[in-house]
Structures are given as C-alpha cells and as structure tokens.
Specification:
Length: 361
Amino acid sequence: MNKIISAVKKIESGNPDKDALLYLFSTNEDIDILFSAAYEVKERYVGKKVYLRGLIEFSNICKKNCYYCGIRRDNHKIKRYSMNKEEILESAIFAYKSGFGSIVLQSGERDDRDFINNLVEVIKEIKSITNNELGITLCVGEEKRDDYEKLFEAGAHRYLLRIETSNEDLYKKIHPEDHSFYNRVECIKMLKNIGYQTGTGVMIGLPFQTIDDLVSDIVFFVENDIDMIGMGPYIEHKDTPLFKYNSKFTLKERFELTLKMIAIMRILMKDINIASTTALQAIDPAGREKGILAGANVIMPNITPLKYREDYRLYENKPCINENSEDCKDCVLNRIKMIGESVALNSLGDPIHYYRRNKES
Ligand code: SAH
Ligand code: SF4
C-alpha cells in the first residue's frame, strides 16, 4: 500500500516519473488508492460535473488506410456516406436544444476543396443558428495549415487529433508507409499555435504495444502541454489488416489500463479535459461511468442519425448502434446522475488548462 501511495505522491507534482508510472501499471492491488486520488483532483480542479459533447459522425469517407480502423479506405464492405448540410444542422440543433454545450464533428480524413469548403459553411451556419453559443470541436484528421486556419476562423475552437501512439516505430507498424508520424506531431503543434483548444490521445492495448509505450504516451501528453485527452482501448475490427496480430493485453486488461491512464493524466495535468470514451463502453456497459470515477470529465453521447451509425464502425461491438439520439441523451443523463455527478448543461466546458497556458505564455 505504501508503494502505491508514494507512486501517486511522486506524480502529484506534475512530473511523469517513469518508475512511479511503471509501478502503477504493474499492480492492481490497492489500485483504488490511485483512482480516489485522481477523483479528488478532479473534484478540486474541474468539479464534480460532466460536460457533454454531442458526437456527429458526419461522413465515413476516408482517404487513409490506417491498419486498425473499420472505415479505412480499402474496406469495401461498408457503405460510404456523407451527411448533407441539413442533416448536420438538424443534429447540431438537437444538441443545442438538449443543453449539450458543444458538439464534435468527426469524420474520415479528406483534404479536397469540397470537403473543406462544405465544412467551413456548416460551421458558420451552426454558429449562426445557435446564437454563437454551441461549441464546436473538430476531429477530421490531418489538414493543411491554411485549412486549419479557415476552419478556426469559421468558428471551430477545439480540435481532437490523436497521436495514436507516441512510439514512432509502433506508429509505422500500424499505418501504411505514406502515413507520417512526423506530420501528425506537426499538426498537433500547428493546431495549438493557431489557437485551438487542442486534444490528442492514444489507443491502448494495440498489437506490439508495451507498458513502456504507455509511459512514453504520458510523457508526450505532458511535454506537448495539451488541453484535452481522448483515449481508449484498441478494439479489433475483423476487416482490417491489424486483426491478425494479437494484442498482449486482453480486453479486460486494456480497459483497466485505460482507467489507469485516465487517473494518471488527471493527477499529472489536473485542469485538462479528459473524455471517457465510447470504446470503454464497448468493453463494459458501465465503462464511461467508470472513466468519470477515474478522473474523466467529458462524455460524448452519439447523436449521429440512426441510419448512418451502422456504417461508422471503427471497431467491433461499437455500442449505441441501435439507439436514437434521444435515447442516447436520456441514457447518459441517467447514468451520470447514478454516480452522483451532475451534467453541466448549456455550458461550453472549455478546458481550464487552455486559459492557464495562454496566460502563462
Ligand atoms: N479520421 C480522423 C477521425 C476519425 S477516427 C482521425 O483519424 O483522426 C477517430 C479515432 O478512432 C482515431 O483517432 C482512432 O484512435 C480511433 N480508432 C480507430 N480505429 C479504432 C479501433 N480499432 N479501436 C479503437 N479506436 C479506434
Ligand atoms: Fe481514416 Fe481516421 Fe480511420 Fe485512419 S483512423 S482510417 S484517418 S477514419
């Protein structure tokens, strides 16, 4: 017990001490000490409340071919779709009227002019019909600096671009040769530099991934001084090239490791936003609540129109494929209440960290 207390104490100072982190990953004995410490930090720095972002998966068309992802370009088994402007606006209005302070616009990656121009238009309209009140997070991959700037000027103020893994060798193993680790890191820096509240994250339990890699991921988050984290367990998809390689970790272990990563990041970076992601719920029906109790403070209820959900399967067993947006909303509100937290309705829920880092720089 003393060992775990001293490991937690070591990281409380904000220093990602490697030995302490390795110890926390190596044991499950008295691990509640880690989770309670993280929950205390959560209460003190970001409150006993959860912010909601309505997730709109507006297109599954992707020019990339990541080896792990169910909507990769070469998966010809799925039907490709793009929601039209009216459908996106309708989903955004649903979020706004439901009191979700923000939405996340997520899609496969494209960089053609139509894609960027349509997205700029849609962002402007969402801002205008919601009285400039609905926050917009983008999660559409690697783009050119000019385009990131255009999207920012149109009104998107947050961006989520996962590094996927901070280990460049592992990155190369899970992506085709023309996908660049270097460019992904540059994009994260660019997004921060433009002024976005910037989030990143990793998948946990990838084939070939080790505990040392997770420690490096933590160091990456700290060194890049990011504002938000969205990370989750890797979950196999049978129609992807990575499917034939086994992870060292069972799904249960990936789930536990993700909770530990959340708790550690809460203790280390204190005032950032951390999402309790859908992939946690894919492994355990109460996964997102457990994520909150480990220190996360954001949940992204899926508000993609039902008819498209089936075709946005990044991984197997993706939950909420058959629930409509109203069901997802009620389910999330109830689940959060059940764990004694409240939902911060009608609130943007910006990461406090973003304002602090800008004041300090
Ligand atoms: N195209 C954009 C956003 C959509 S993908 C991008 O790649 O940034 C969003 C996230 O889904 C990815 O960052 C990845 O971390 C996650 N993802 C993809 N396949 C997954 C899988 N098999 N298991 C868990 N997460 C996965
Ligand atoms: Fe496309 Fe993103 Fe999936 Fe990679 S992870 S194939 S970029 S949708």
